[in-house]
Specification:
The chain has 199 residues and is of the alpha/beta class. It has one domain: Uracil-DNA glycosylase-like domain (Uracil-DNA Glycosylase, subunit E, 3-Layer(aba) Sandwich), CATH 3.40.470. It has nine helices and five strands; from the N terminus they run ααβαααβαβααββα. A five-stranded mixed beta sheet has the order 2-1-3-5-4, with helices on both faces. The protein is globular and about 45 Å long. The termini are far apart.
């Protein structure tokens, strides 16, 4: 993929992407992402779900509502502040077990990686928020959420703050210590948004 010179051009190309589909993966296009040039905060999750695939916007389901509640932002404020992207951009389809969504393969993640690389190059964000272990591992090399939540990391010229996934299926937040870690992480995010002048 050639290096794109603007976010608008990158988004036009990303919206037409069919790489995973052409490689034989059972995804449900089109790609889902949201943002604009000039945004200084970058939110990086795992993949869109069924609701996101239907609406064409990220973070529209229950997990998105939980995430916005954590961040104390309504939907308009959330999208005003964050460029929203993900490890894979298309809904990966249902899990073969029939429970939840299918986890994209490493090959699919690799096919999507250039979109993230160009977004970060073009946006040069001051804050990167990773949501869930997969996104956190991909950008920061972290292998356990417990080791990362509540800490800040340097990522090029940005401060990176990991968050757990806001899925109701996760039991991670059942532990009071983990809830305290989340509270500390959210304080980091709000502090960085204020520092960037976007809160």
């Amino acid at each position: 993929m050639s290096r794109t010179r603007s976010i608008a051009s990158l988004q036009r190309r990303n919206a037409r992407c069919r790489r995973c589909l052409e490689a034989g993966f059972p995804i449900v296009p089109p790609p889902v992402f949201a943002g604009r040039a000039g945004q200084r905060a970058y939110l990086y999750g795992l993949a869109p779900g069924r609701v996101e695939a239907e609406t064409g916007l990220p973070w529209q389901g229950r997990a998105g509502r939980t995430l916005r509640r954590w961040l104390q932002l309504d939907e308009n404020e959330f999208f005003e502040r964050f460029y929203c992207a993900s490890v894979t951009r298309c809904f990966p389809g249902p899990s073969p077990s029939g429970r939840g969504d299918r986890r994209a393969t490493p090959a699919e993640e690799a096919l999507c990686a250039p979109w993230r690389e160009d977004e970060l190059r073009l946006l040069r964000p001051g804050l990167v928020v990773t949501v869930g272990l997969a996104a956190t591992h991909q950008l920061l090399g972290v292998r356990r959420l417990t080791d990362a939540i509540g800490k800040s990391y340097a990522l090029d010229d940005a401060i990176a703050v990991p968050l757990p996934h806001p899925s109701g299926a996760s039991g991670w937040l059942n532990d009071e210590t983990n809830r305290k870690r989340l509270g500390k992480a959210l304080t980091h995010v709000r502090r960085e948004l204020e520092r960037l002048g976007v809160e």
